[in-house]
């Protein structure tokens, strides 16, 4: 069986529950309105620009200028950002704890996250300090799935992709890791992750 010495976690959707819906369900009356707003105004593509280093203030002002009738709702995105954090995904945190306590594997984080909001998460969640190293897209001015952020991770922490496992809930972000030679796990639940790691003799 292949031997692994490195495990790399995505954060949002794997270890931390983060959903803009938590805020916008308090603003709009129906789920249809919530989803319309998130798919047409504060879109995933828009948010990812900030994940890649764009200023939250600049991004907000540009979007308000484009959709002035939605100003209050747009400002809520980063103004109430902390309310989008639903807390740790406890089952995955437990897997992380077990890996950290019982194996010699190095454990890293590779996350799409604004450099301006990541310090809030660092303050809230102790387990973010357990990693042997972290690469935060907003600090690097790039993001997944661009190949350069995976290459930066490998270079900065002297990672051998062939003996590494990369875990992400977004399929799109798994392909570059696979292309570089990493074993990939498409995260769907803590239970599924545990079983896959057991099958690889990592847990």
Description:
The strands form 2 sheets. The protein has a 5-stranded parallel beta sheet. The protein has 2 domains: 6-17 and 87-199, Rossmann fold, CATH 3.40.50; 18-85. The model has no long low-confidence stretch (mean pLDDT 97). It is globular, with a radius of gyration of 18 Å. The chain has 203 residues and is α/β, with parallel strands linked by helices. Helix 7 (118-124) links the parallel strand 4 (106-111) and strand 5 (133-136). The two termini are 14 Å apart. Helices cover 47% and strands 15% of the residues. It has 11 helices and 7 strands.
List keywords for this structure.
47% helix; Rossmann fold; globular; five-stranded parallel beta sheet; single chain
CATH superfamily of the largest domain: HAD superfamily/HAD-like
How many strands, what sense, and barrel or not for the largest sheet?
5 strands, parallel
- Spans where pLDDT lies below 50 across 5 or more residues: none
Tell me the number of strands: 7
Q: Give average pLDDT, whole number.
A: 97
CATH architecture of the largest domain: 3-Layer(aba) Sandwich
Spatial gap, N to C terminus: 14 Å
Q: Could you tell me the strand content as a percent range?
A: 5-15%
Q: What value does the Rg take, in angstroms?
A: 18 Å
Write the layout of secondary structure elements.
Elements: E1 6-9, E2 16-18, H1 21-24, H2 31-40, H3 44-51, H4 56-66, H5 71-79, E3 85-88, H6 90-102, E4 106-111, H7 118-124, E5 133-136, H8 137-140, H9 147-156, E6 164-168, H10 171-179, E7 183-186, H11 190-199
Helix pairs in contact: 4-5, 6-11
């Amino acid at each position: 069986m292949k031997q692994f010495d490195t495990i790399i976690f995505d954060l949002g959707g794997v270890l931390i529950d983060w959903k803009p819906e938590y805020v916008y369900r308090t603003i709009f009356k129906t789920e249809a309105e919530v989803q319309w707003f998130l798919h047409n105004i504060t879109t995933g593509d828009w948010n990812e620009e900030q994940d890649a280093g764009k200023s939250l203030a600049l991004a907000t002002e540009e979007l308000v200028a484009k959709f002035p009738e939605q100003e209050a709702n747009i400002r809520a995105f980063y103004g109430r950002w902390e309310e989008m954090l639903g807390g740790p995904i406890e089952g995955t945190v437990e897997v992380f704890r077990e890996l950290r306590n019982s194996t010699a594997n190095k454990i890293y984080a590779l996350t799409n996250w604004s450099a301006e909001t990541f310090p809030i998460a660092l303050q809230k969640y102790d387990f973010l300090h357990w990693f042997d190293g972290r690469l935060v897209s907003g600090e690097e001015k790039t993001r997944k799935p661009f190949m350069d952020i995976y290459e930066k991770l490998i270079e900065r922490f002297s990672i051998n992709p062939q003996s590494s496992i990369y875990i992400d809930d977004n399929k799109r972000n798994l392909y570059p890791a696979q292309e570089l030679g990493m074993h990939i796990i498409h995260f769907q639940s803590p239970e599924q992750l545990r079983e896959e790691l057991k099958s690889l003799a990592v847990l």
